Amino acid sequence: MIRVVLQQAERTAAQSHRGAARVRYLGWLVLSILALVLTAGIAVTIGPADVSLTDVTASLAGHLGLPGAAEVAPLTDSIVWQLRLPRVLTAAAVGAGLALSGAVMQSVTRNPLADPYLLGLSSGASLGAVCVIILGVAVALPAAAFLGALAALVATLSIARAGGTITPGRAVLSGLAIAQLGGAGTSFIIFWAAKGDSYREILNWLLGSLAGSSWSSVAISVSALVLVGAGIVLSATRLDAFTFGDTAAASLGIDVNRTRWILLGAVALLTGAMVAVSGAIGFVGLILPHLVRGLSGPGHRRLLPLTVVLGALFLILADTVARTVFDPRELPVGIITALIGVPVFIVLIKSRKAAAWS
Fold first, then answer.
1. Is 209 left (phi over 0), alpha (psi -120 to 50) or beta?
2. CATH assignment of 88-357?
3. Phi/psi of residue 168, each to 5°?
4. 56-64, long-range: CB within 8 Å, 24+ apart, which pairs?
5. Full-model pTM
6. CA-based nearest residue to 323, from 207, 218, 210, 216
């Protein structure tokens, strides 16, 4: 009788703990969403020209055709709708996509240092982008970067497959080789053909920049995030299974190889789309998933949605700093993410959580 009572008490305590954890997580998620919306609105107001939140709201309401929209001066409306709002929305989508991709890569490869560019995607995208800039057809840059990222993925998987069964370790090593090859090709083109404006444009792209964001950039990044990212988030339970290894995942009825490569392909598509509009922005996909795990726990059903929101928030803040701290000059946002990411990475390495990395 006493044993039954104790077991019932343990179950009640466990349910109470899970309930408290769920409430705490929902609180973080709601707070993060509110912070994201407020930060995005404030970011649009920041710049050389004075724009208020009221102007931003009125401009947005007018373009969306909402009833009762207030009048906005044409110049202010152009600043909000054509310049700042597309940039902020692109930053949000790119930050969310890179953070989500990093979380998936770390889970699928069981490598806490994995990031979205692990399979050579960044070097392939960079090579494609540099080629079109040198040829003077920068209008094709997003398409060239996306195709370059996909070509790098195909090359990586082809090399990994040549050794027999594709494993995470073999794929990572193949990705490193392709990354070095793509980097060498990019360096050669820059050394041989880049000069003047093309050199500055290439450097700006390689360091990551959202300066040229437009509504087409918003369409590309948001579409990729919704279409591909939604599928990844819905795979949260399968990602949980990978945490315990391939054998455990297979015992749960998961086709390990098929699931792994579907997820890697989805990450490649998502990363390729983000790199196509922003250039190579580092540390977002590496750092954000680790920070979010401290708030959500290791379960992917909670980790992935919060990672998306905080990734968007982080890159909006980083880009706002990049375009204002040295006004009228503008820094590539990749410099800001590195300046923030490196110290955070060092703190993570030194923390108790680093014991799981060794």
1. beta
2. 1.10.3470.10
3. -55, -40
4. 56/80, 56/85, 59/85, 60/85
5. 0.87
6. 210
Comparing C-alpha atoms, which of 105, 185, 101 is closest to residue 151? 185
Q: Read out DSSP for 121-134?
A: HHHHHHHHHHHHHH
Cα separation, 31 vs 33, whole angstroms? 6
Name the amino acid, one letter, at 51.
V
Alpha carbon distances (Å) from 248 to 19, 237, 240: 27, 13, 10
Which residue from 286, 297, 312 is spatially nearest to 236, judged by alpha carbons?
297
Which pair of structure tokens corresponds to residue 198? 């093309």
- Report the candidate in 273, 285, 281 with the shortest Cα–Cα distance to residue 147: 273
pLDDT digits (tens, 9 = 90+) for 282-317: 899 999 998 898 888 888 999 999 999 999 999 999
> Measured between alpha carbons, how far is 154 from 162 in angstroms, rounded to an integer?
12
CA dihedral 28, 31, 34, 38 (to 10 degrees): -110
Q: What is the pLDDT of residues 149-166, one digit of tens each?
A: 888 988 988 888 776 666
Q: What is the DSSP letter of 72?
A: -
- DSSP helix/strand/coil, 217: helix
**Exposure string over 321-342, b if 16+ CB within 10 A, otherwise e:** bbbeeeeeebbbbbbbbbebbe
